């Protein structure tokens, strides 16, 4: 989803799942784009490194400030952005290190949905028109399926 | 997520999972709103019934027409809407019965993200300002967590 919505790269942490890494790699090879996926055991170091390079860290949490009130400010900073999405209980240090703690509604729901809406708001919907050059491409249809393959 | 984003009701089909039904019920009881969740074995009948009542069926599929090109038309119809989201391979009949086959990008990604963006576009972002009266409420914070409980 991050790829389809305009993100450049995703870094996973926590328990390593090689199946996920492989399946995203395969998806990028089939569907195109320059999306990267990686694994990092030490997420704290990764966040600190990113901050040293003057990037902005945005942590998505239901406890944060409304996305609709902060997104223009974040967009206007014109900096590289790292979006942090935690599963389960997120350590306090993440709230402290983040430049923004942002809520996509203050209601419990899915991290995937929160990230999708954040990216959608950040790119002002333009990510929906993004095209990818891959081996496989879909031609949008009113009904049915049309997949074009560029492989011989 | 459907609840947080302004949907009124969700009906699950396929393999019945009572844990999901119970956990959404508990969430609604804690966090408020009039969201309903149900299970329906015969999804086809459910779709047909809804159509008979002049509702509009929108099927979310990566093969469909771009959401950004159709959403205004759908919104302007001012009808009740059933959004159909399939897991895995979706039977052809769903494409045929649906008034709209809609793609949130023609790229493979998450059904949850597709539904979130569809609702966000449909409600023009206003769903983010929706408030719920529940036992628990979050007060948005720049940092940290603030949950208010109305229970004594």
Structure description:
Two copies of one chain form a homodimer. The first copy, chain A, has a three-stranded parallel sheet. A two-stranded parallel ribbon of chain A has the order 1-2. Chain A has a single domain (9-149), classed as SPOUT methyltransferase, trefoil knot domain (Alpha/beta knot), CATH 3.40.1280. In chain A, strand 3, helix 3 and strand 4 form a beta-alpha-beta unit. The first copy, chain A, is an alpha/beta fold and 152 residues long. The first copy, chain A, is built from five helices and seven strands; from the N terminus they run E-H-E-H-E-H-E-H-E-H-E-E. The two termini of chain A are 28 Å apart. In chain A, 29% of the residues are buried. Chains A and B meet through strand 3, helix 4 and helix 5 of A and strand 3, helix 4 and helix 5 of B.
Attribute tags:
homodimer, 152 residues, alpha/beta, Alpha/beta knot, 3-stranded parallel beta sheet, 7 strands, 34% helix, globular
Query: What series of H and E elements makes up the topology of chain A?
Result: EHEHEHEHEHEE
- Strand segment tally of chain A: 7
The coarse overall form of chain A would be: globular
Q: What is the CATH architecture term of chain A?
A: 3-Layer(aba) Sandwich
* Neighbour order of strands in the largest sheet of chain A: 4-3-5
CATH class label of chain A:
Alpha Beta
The helix count of chain A comes to 5
* Main interface: chain pair and counts: A-B, 49 and 48 residues
Strand content of chain A is 15-25%
Given helix and strand content, the structural type of chain A is: alpha/beta
The pLDDT mean of chain A sits at 93
Q: Any idea what the CATH superfamily of chain A is called?
A: SPOUT methyltransferase, trefoil knot domain
User: What share of residues of chain A is helical?
Assistant: 25-40%
Q: How much is the radius of gyration of chain A in Å?
A: 17 Å
The largest sheet of chain A, given as strand count, sense and whether it forms a barrel, is: 3 strands, parallel
Low-pLDDT stretches of chain A: none
Regarding quaternary structure, what we see is homodimer
Give the termini separation of chain A: 28 Å
């Amino acid at each position: 989803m991050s790829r389809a919505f305009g993100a450049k790269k995703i870094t996973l942490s926590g328990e390593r799942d090689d199946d996920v890494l492989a399946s995203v790699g395969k998806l990028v090879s089939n569907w195109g784009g320059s999306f990267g996926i990686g694994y990092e055991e030490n997420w704290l170091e990764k966040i600190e490194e990113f901050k040293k390079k003057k990037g902005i860290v945005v942590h998505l949490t239901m406890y944060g400030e409304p996305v609709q009130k902060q997104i223009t400010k974040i967009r206007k900073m014109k900096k590289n952005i790292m979006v942090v999405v935690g599963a389960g209980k997120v350590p306090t240090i993440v709230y402290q290190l983040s430049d923004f703690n942002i809520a996509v509604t203050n209601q419990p729901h899915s991290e995937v949905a929160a990230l999708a809406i954040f990216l959608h708001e950040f790119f002002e919907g333009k990510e929906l028109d993004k095209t990818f050059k891959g081996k496989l491409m879909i031609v949008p249809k009113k009904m049915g399926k049309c997949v074009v393959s560029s492989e011989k």
